Give the backbone structure.
Amino acid sequence: MAYRYNEKTGEFEQINSSGPAPAPKPASAPSRPTTTGGSGSEKGGCILGGLLMIAYTVLPYLLLAGLASLCS
């Protein structure tokens, strides 16, 4: 994607190869509502995702340590 600066409006416009640039969205209106917390399922998914990330980073080292202790 390429952008260009429009001096008349003072905004950046997206340059599309298929046609003219679409109208820019106003910055004051967010596309989705911002919330400070999430619902219980969203928080649970975040916690579960964090635990999975920790498990996938630690698990290979534990397996290698186990194999090294078996081979020695």
Remarks:
- The longest helix spans residues 40-71.
- Residues 3 and 15 are 5 Å apart (CA to CA).
